[in-house]
Amino acid sequence: MAVVFVLNGPNLNLLGRRQPEIYGHETLADVEAACIARGGALGLTVSFHQSNHEGEIVETIHRARDEAAAIVINPAAYTHTSVAIMDALLAFDGPVIEVHLSNVHRREEFRSHSWVSKAATGVICGLGSHGYLLALDAVARLVDAEAG
User: Is 100 a catalytic residue?
Assistant: First the structure.
């Protein structure tokens, strides 16, 4: 089974408790369980990660080069600031799907710019935690297309 790294950036460990009116009431553990279940149904192994530290996210992306067929990433605030994460993703050979719980384009102006999008195969935003599941659906199709 193909391995997919699902990466989560800063403050997502507070999901369900931090601004639930924007990010929803589900916890990151809920999102992880849903991703693992959906991945299994799609024939994917999900490796779920969260860090509040940019360098740790970069290191995990580097590990994905040897261990994963695809990456689903919600870089959170690093979306708008991290050239380092963008560069690491550009060095990854498989599909990259960028996910955001909220519609970043309907929020503060600074949130409409994404460095990560420059490295992403596709972007899903504004659909809450369901966006992660849609990203896994997309990854399954993309990985299958690359294999066959």
Answer: yes
CATH number at residue 18: 3.40.50.9100
User: Which residues, other chains included, contact 115 with Cβ-Cβ below 8 Å and sequence gap of 6+?
Assistant: 79, 80, 81, 82, 83, 85, 86
Among candidate residues 101, 123, 130, 112, the one with its CA nearest the CA of residue 18? 101
Residue of 49, 53, 100, 113 with catalytic role: 100
Asked if 23 is an active-site residue, the reply is: yes
Instruction: Tell if the pTM clears 0.90, that is, is over it.
Output: yes
| 59-111 pLDDT per residue, tens | 999 999 999 999 999 999 999 899 999 999 999 999 999 999 987 766 567 56
Overall number of domains in the chain: 1
User: 6 and 70 in contact (C-beta within 8 Å)?
Assistant: no
Domain that holds residue 12: 2-147
Q: Which of 23, 25, 62, 78 is catalytic?
A: 23
Q: What is the pLDDT of residues 128-146, one digit of tens each?
A: 999 999 999 999 999 988 7
